[in-house]
Amino acid sequence: KNEVEQSPQNLTAQEGEFITINCSYSVGISALHWLQQHPGGGIVSLFMLSSGKKKHGRLIATINIQEKHSSLHITASHPRDSAVYICAVDSGSDKLIFGTGTRLQVFP
Amino acid sequence: GAGVSQSPSNKVTEKGKDVELRCDPISGHTALYWYRQSLGQGLEFLIYFQGNSAPDKSGLPSDRFSAERTGGSVSTLTIQRTQQEDSAVYLCASSFTGRLGEQYFGPGTRLTVT
To answer: I need a surface site. Which of A31, A68, B4, B51 has the fewest CB within 10 A?
Structure first.
């Protein structure tokens, strides 16, 4: 079993839909990252959080440390949100452990 | 401002040759990371530098891989005696505040070993 599990692996949505991507982990962490990888390969850091909730535009990330679970929400989804979303945890050992990613496609 | 840059953007090499990949982090960023993404696979952590030191080298796939960082800035990832399984995109990222800081990624170097 991977130490970081994401679900779903693939997700399709219609423009405007509310989207949730989940990340569960089995190790103790000091921080959790959400990354976005565009079809061209470029990676952008969306959030780094260690507790609670963060919001940036239409994106919201939450984390529940006790349940070892984080969610990334996208409100009013748009085709330009189509990308691979990656969860990564910092376990405090100078290594990041990555989930396998969730491929999102938003259709007009 | 300038982001993280990597060179070369693409590298094709013959099996058995050595390659050097370069990463220029954002100025002032103390932490630097190397990752690898094989075709169709997820991201794999390779090594992390805080300043010039890498506390943990165990993420490097084999002893053919080495990395150094000088002057707290530029880093090079060297792969000796390349193998076909080394073919991947090698990504570098940097952050200002260290391991717990937001990471800024470079565009990657696509390495193809023939």
So the answer is: B51
Residue B72 has pLDDT above 90, yes or no: no
Are the CB atoms for B8 and B89 separated by under 8 Å?
Answer: no
* Among the listed residues A97, A23, A98, A34, the one whose alpha carbon sits nearest the alpha carbon of residue A67: A23
State CA B10 to chain mean position distance: 13
Sorted by sequence, the CB contacts under 8 Å of residue A23 that are 6+ apart come out as A4, A5, A6, A32, A34, A69, A70, A71, A72, A87, A99
Of the listed ranges A62-76, A85-99, B57-71, the one predicted with least confidence: A85-99
Q: How far apart are the first and last CA of chain A?
A: 36
Do the strands B19-24 and A69-74 form a parallel or antiparallel pair, or are they unpaired?
A: unpaired
Q: Between A31, A45, A86, which is nearest B100 by CB?
A: A31
* Pick from B99, B103, B107: CB nearest A94: B99
Answer yes or no: do B45 and A97 touch at CB < 8 A: yes
Q: Does B40 contact A at CB distance below 8 Å? A: no
